[in-house]
Each structure stands twice: as C-alpha cells, then as structure tokens.
Amino acid sequence: MNPLDYLVPESLDFPQRLLALLAIPLLAGAYLLLSRRRNRKAMRFTNTAMLELAMPRTSQWRRHLAVAMALLSLVTLTVAWAKPVGLDRVRVERATVVVVLDVSQSMAATDVEPSRIEAAKTAATEFVNGVPPTYNVALVSLSGNPGVVVPPTLNRQAVEGAIAQLELRDSTAIGESIVVAMNALQQAPKGDGDEPPPGAIVVLSDGQTNVGRPGVQGAAVAADAGVPVFTIAYGTENGYVDLDNERQPVPVNVEEMRQIAERSGGRALTASSAEELRNVYQQVESEVGFEEARRDVTARYAMYAGVFAVLAALSTISLSARWPS
Predict the structure, then answer these.
(1) CB 169 within 8 Å of CB 106
(2) Which is nearest to 143 in space by CA: 167, 162, 161?
(3) Is the pLDDT reported for residue 42 higher than 70?
C-alpha cells in the first residue's frame, strides 16, 4: 500500500464538512496579527536585556509550535468529522494461483546449483506448500508448446508430483503461456453468485520469447481480466547450455519480465541463486490472494487529532516551565 494512503483518504462520506477548514486560515491569521501587536508593544521597552528576560526567544518558538500543533489537531479532527474512507489490503478466503514454470532448454544451465530447473522445482514446491490451503493452485509448463499440467486444485500433492515430473522442452513462448494460464483460471471452481474467485499468475522464466506472441501481449490479456502477473527473472548473466555439442550463452532476460509485470499490474522480481529464489517466492506468497477493500478510517484521523492535541498541550506546558539557561 502506498504510504500516502495513510495521510490522504480515498474518499469522504461527507466532503461538505471540509468547509469547516476555512476557519483554520482565519485562526492562523488572527494568531499572526496578535503576535505582531504583542511584538510592537514589546518594542516600547528600551532596555533590551529586560525584554529578553520578559520574553525569551526560545519561548516564542514553543508558543509557535503549540499553535501549529493545535491547528493541525483541528485539521485532522475536521477530516475525521467528514468520515474518511480508505483502502486496505484484505486477504480473500478463496483465490486461484497459477504457477507458470519455464521448462525450456536454457533452464538446464548450471550457473545456479544444481541447475536452474532443479532449483526452480524445489522453490516452486515450497511456494505451493506456502499458499493458503483454501486457495486453488494450477501448474502450467512454459515452453514452445505451453500447456496446463494441473488444473486448479486444492490437492497440493498432485501439484508437487507434477512439478517433479516436468521435463525440458524446446523454445520459449512466454506470451502464450500467460494466455494458457488465463484459460486455467477459468477452470477454477466458481464461488457464490457463480463468480470466479480472484486469481494471480506467477511466471518463473530465464529466457526471452522466441515463438508465439510477445510476453507483453499475454500480459495485456491478463490485465484486461484484472489478473496480476508476478514475474521472476531467474538466472545469471553467465549462464550457458551445451546443445548439439555447441556451447550457447543463455543470460537471464530481465526486461521482458519487467514489462509483463508492469503491463498486468503485478510485480517484477529477480533471483540469481536458489536462496534468492526461495526469498522471492516468499515475497510473492505475501502478496497474492489480496484485494483492496474500502473501509471507514475515521478512527485513524481521530487518533492523529489526539496526537497533535497532546503535542500542543505539551508545548503549552513547556511555556510556563523554567528551563536552565
């Protein structure tokens, strides 16, 4: 969530009540006017030493601070009176997560021990086990001919077994794989009202699309359906594979994965080791299955008003306190 959401509400139930804020600049102006008059009176003293004793400079700053805190308290109290509504991330009870795992030949690279594909299988299995038990999980293999390996299911053992049995294949069709993942989401059991539960797609790949539609076009299909695609660019720049007795470099492609995530409203992540991949999957796990819900945040702004009021009171009390010189 954007930190500004805690300071600026999404909407107000009674925005007309904010008209009361017009009194704030009037109060501030009145305070400045009275301060100037007081300063003019003080200038009648000819003995500046007596003036400093009667009205120390530091006390003026504490007085200004007390007034500023009091005005901020009135501002936040007025916003609370207008009944602000904010957005909050709420975990849904049911959701579907589609794991898209790259099984192209480049995943045989050993720049990640024991190999990209074996480390990816291990991390994907841990991720599936970490998904809430009420969520359906589906598995899609990413290659030149992507397909649904396991449709949405609550059976984690079926998904784990399918991950372990994945074999390397030719070519990389990331865009087509996302479309296949979208088709898998349609197979998820419907909820109340015959509406499908919210879904998310997690794509782990090291390569670049070389067949089928570009990855960003597949992301557009997901974006139109409101499905975020979380991408994990996996591998290093030094990866290589031996194909037909010829060494071919297979550096990880980060840019396409980033474009996919941005286009779909998901998040782009990178991992260059098995440990980093586990950490990345944990980050994804903490984000999938959430939706933004509107809720009343009047209490939050009332709390802000209370904090400013306490600060104003402390500043006022400090005015009468004797501080060591």
Answers:
(1) no
(2) 167
(3) no
Q: Which residues contact 144 (CB under 8 A, 6 or more apart)?
A: 104, 169, 170, 171, 172, 173, 210, 211, 212
Is 129 a member of any domain? yes
Looking at the fold, whether 239 and 137 belong to one and the same domain comes out as yes
Going by C-alpha positions, the residue among 253, 247, 249, 209 that lies closest to residue 235 is: 253
- Give the model's pLDDT for residue 241: 93
Q: In terms of residue numbers, what domain contains 301?
A: 3-87+295-320
The CA dihedral of 301, 307, 309, 313, to the nearest 10 degrees, is 180
- Please check whether residue 325 lies inside any domain of the structure: no
Same-domain status, 57 and 175? no
pLDDT, one tens digit per residue, over 5-19 is: 556 777 888 999 999
144 vs 87: which has the higher pLDDT: 144
* First-residue to last-residue Cα distance in the chain: 47
DSSP code at position 228: -
Tell me how many domains the chain contains: 2
CA 4 – CA 21 distance, rounded (Å): 20
